[in-house]
From TrEMBL:
Protein name: Triosephosphate isomerase
Active site per the UniProt annotation: 94, 166
Gene name of this polypeptide: tpiA
HAMAP family, per database record: TIM_B (MF_00147_B)
UniProt source species: Fructilactobacillus cliffordii
Catalyzed reactions: D-glyceraldehyde 3-phosphate = dihydroxyacetone phosphate
Amino acid sequence: MRTPFIGGNWKMNLSLTEAAQFIDEIQTQLPPSDEVETVLAASPLFLHTMQEHNNSPLLVAAENCFYEDEGAYTGEVSPKALSQMGIKYVIVGHSERRKYFHETDEIVNKKVHAVFRNHMLPIICCDETMGRYETGDHISWMVNQVTAAIRGLDADDVKKAVVAYEPSWAIGTGHTAPADAAEEGCYLIRQTIADIYSDQIANQVRILYGGSVTHENIRELMKQPDIDGVLAGKASLTTQEFVELANFYQPK
């Protein structure tokens, strides 16, 4: 019942020319949006150009935003401005934002509210480190991040959110979580939401896995009952790989 979600996060990669060329190249190769929702998140510098070139089911998303709509916040990205551009999704709480820019659970929660306030949808990332995974502390760590991120939201908003389980030890390392471990993380997220709201709400939330996703492992990941899609990093930087991810359900 949940439409598969295949997302890419370019991070601080590609140029404006490369971004436009990328969109041009994938125009006719993506599945219909009612079969698979395809989303690419990019630098705010690229978003307008990507939208101008886009004539496909692809949705262009933002990698980040601030939690205030406007003000004296030099260098930040206004969620109000993103909404006025027609952006639908914004990534919030990525592990790299937490690590390098010291974003706390409180900041992530404020950003989630700002995204909804401006009629967009958040892709909420939750993280775990290898150290926590090896000591068994990853469960409480991850559950706490999810709980904090959705604090204060009403049920109608929560069911429209997308949540991405992204163990930082797998991001950009080539070490993908085994499918059963990825499923465990996504299951725990769904159960956390169910405990706070209800099973009915939790079963409408799309939960993604992110961490060294490739065309070689996506099919096994997508077989899992609680994995509704992926959020790819490196694999979203080439047109061939992204198109293969988007068409994961097609026979090889």
